[in-house]
């Protein structure tokens, strides 16, 4: 578990921006419900537009900028990952399958042995 502090929104301007973004999303939901007589395409387009506008407003705040920075850093780390080749992936998958089969057989044998001890020897049941 990490001991880092959780950063909260402290700036009044950032709080206003995030509250406005939430209100825009709520307005999109309300417009989707109120315009029930309109075609579904129009209603969905209004809702998606409200999500896009809300995301734009939220990304103008400090938490939004931190989120974009985190995404860029994550993408940079992803490009540095050394992915296994197809042959390596197939070998590791085979190893996992063999291990699962061996553990399955072991657990089946342990179950049968414990069943025999409990029901056969201790309780005398057949």
From TrEMBL:
Q: Which InterPro entries does the protein's record reference?
A: SecE_bac, SecE_sf, Translocase_SecE/Sec61-g
Localization recorded for this chain is: Membrane
Identify the main location.
membrane
User: Its domain of life?
Assistant: Bacteria
Q: Name one GO biological process term.
A: intracellular protein transmembrane transport
User: Which parts of the chain span the membrane according to its record?
Assistant: 18-35, 41-60, 89-110
A Pfam family this protein belongs to? SecE
- State one molecular function term (GO): protein transmembrane transporter activity
Report whether NADP shows up as a keyword of the record.
Answer: no
List, alphabetically, the GO terms of the cellular component aspect: plasma membrane
Alphabetically list the UniProt keywords.
Cell membrane, Membrane, Protein transport, Translocation, Transmembrane, Transmembrane helix, Transport
- Please give the subunit comment from the record: Component of the Sec protein translocase complex. Heterotrimer consisting of SecY, SecE and SecG subunits. The heterotrimers can form oligomers, although 1 heterotrimer is thought to be able to translocate proteins. Interacts with the ribosome. Interacts with SecDF, and other proteins may be involved. Interacts with SecA.
Q: Which family does it belong to?
A: Belongs to the SecE/SEC61-gamma family.
Recorded hits in HAMAP family, A to Z, give: SecE
**What does the UniProt record say this protein does?**
Essential subunit of the Sec protein translocation channel SecYEG. Clamps together the 2 halves of SecY. May contact the channel plug during translocation.
- In Swiss-Prot or TrEMBL terms, this protein is called Protein translocase subunit SecE
UniProt organism field: Neopusillimonas maritima
Which taxonomic lineage does the organism of this UniProt entry have? Answer: Bacteria, Pseudomonadati, Pseudomonadota, Betaproteobacteria, Burkholderiales
């Amino acid at each position: 578990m990490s001991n880092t502090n959780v950063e909260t929104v402290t700036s009044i301007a950032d709080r206003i921006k995030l509250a406005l973004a939430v209100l825009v999303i709520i307005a999109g939901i309300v417009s989707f419900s109120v315009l029930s007589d309109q075609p579904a395409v129009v209603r969905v387009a209004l809702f998606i537009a409200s999500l896009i506008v809300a995301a734009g407003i939220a990304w103008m705040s400090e938490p939004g900028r931190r989120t974009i920075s985190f995404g860029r850093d994550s993408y940079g780390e992803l490009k540095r990952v050394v992915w296994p080749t197809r042959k390596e992936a197939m070998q590791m998958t085979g190893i996992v399958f063999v291990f699962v089969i061996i553990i399955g057989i072991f657990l089946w044998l342990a179950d049968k042995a414990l069943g025999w001890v409990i029901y056969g020897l201790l309780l005398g049941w057949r």
